[in-house]
Design goal:
Distance between the termini: 10 Å
CATH class of the largest domain: Alpha Beta
Helix content: 25-40%
Mean pLDDT: 90
Order of helices and strands: EEEHEEEEHEHHEEEEHH
Largest sheet: 10 strands, antiparallel
Shape: globular
Radius of gyration: 21 Å
Number of helices: 6
Number of strands: 12
Strand content: 25-35%
CATH architecture of the largest domain: 2-Layer Sandwich
Length: 270
């Protein structure tokens, strides 16, 4: 599956990894913030991670939560952006970033994006740095990966069609509503969610109207969730991301067949 396009609708890719962190709970399922006295071990490992990511060219760090403030589990605290260097042979790094927090790590990519073949190695570098710096006393046995693609179909892709018409005529998704919901005589703007079972989890698709930089767009949010955790090691995590990407890519290519021409396939890849 090597299909690539000159003008894909991609907004962002988010490869997210979560793991359990011991935290106090006010009630079942209701975690309370991690207070500053509890954060020192995280700060030390994140400082080492900053050095490792800096060696990969991601030297610009930004704190999303000010120092001394409490953290919530599974919320990013520090963001690392690419600042250039000897890694220029991987130009996608310029549009990639990493985020880390208590029990969470993400690798993000935004346009210009070429393919998973280019972004996957960047994700691997980040995941390997995470394991080397943040799990010195032993990695969690179980981790929960999620891969998410966010697309925005603009005028180039939709030719001004409504969401209902685009879903029906391009993607082959037909929505039939009873008269009682069409009584006003006005076109309705649906928000549609579809969940496709996978051998190892589920693919969730969410369609909605939106806007990007002031331009009307149809937003498609696709994410793969695993039924169970994966082993706590880089190879297992990267294998999970790869399987998730293959499923997302396959469904995207099939759904968008009628507009492949306007997305301009690269090098006869279709």
């Amino acid at each position: 599956m090597k299909e690539r396009f000159e003008f894909p609708p991609l907004l962002e890719i988010i490869a997210e990894l979560r793991w359990d962190v011991h935290a106090p709970h006010a009630a079942p399922g209701a975690p309370i913030p991690l207070l500053p006295p509890m954060l020192q071990p995280f700060e030390e490992s994140f400082s080492e991670l900053a050095g490792a990511l800096g060696n990969l060219g991601f030297r610009n760090s930004e704190r999303l939560i000010p120092q001394g403030f409490p953290w919530m589990v599974h919320e990013p605290v520090i963001r690392f952006r690419y600042s250039g260097g000897a890694e220029e042979q991987q130009p996608l790094k310029k549009s990639s970033l990493f985020q880390v927090g208590a029990g969470i790590f993400t690798a993000n990519a935004v346009p210009p994006y070429s393919s998973w073949d280019d972004f996957g190695p960047i994700v691997r570098e980040g995941v390997e740095a995470l394991f080397a710096c943040c799990f010195k006393s032993g990695a969690p046995e179980k981790m929960a990966p999620t891969l998410r693609y966010i697309d925005a179909f603009k005028e180039l892709h939709t030719s001004g069609a409504s969401m209902h018409k685009f879903l029906s005529e391009v993607m082959g998704i037909n929505i039939s509503l009873p008269d009682t919901l069409n009584g006003s005589g006005q076109a309705m703007t649906p928000q549609l969610q579809i969940v496709k079972p996978l051998p190892f989890g589920r693919l969730a698709l969410q369609f909605m109207d939106g806007a990007v930089n002031g331009e009307k767009a149809l937003i498609l949010d696709m994410s793969v969730h695993f039924d169970g955790p994966v082993a706590g090691n880089p190879d297992a995590v990267l294998d999970a991301f790869s399987r998730a990407r293959d499923e997302i890519h396959r469904v995207f290519v099939e759904l968008t067949k009628p507009i492949h021409a306007v997305m301009h396939p690269k090098d006869g890849s279709i």
